[in-house]
Amino acid sequence: MDTLKKHLPGSGQEGLHELQNMAQRFEEKIFTAATSQ
Predict the structure, then answer these.
(1) Which ranges of the sequence are coiled-coil (predicted)?
(2) Which among 14, 27, 25 is positioned nearest to 5, based on CA atoms?
């Protein structure tokens, strides 16, 4: 999470919220790929 924060152009709560959304979408893609095999 800290590594991603360093590369995120936005700051504050809005940037953190976007980062959390990105992480959630990534987790969903990984979960879907893992369970569909």
Answers:
(1) none
(2) 14
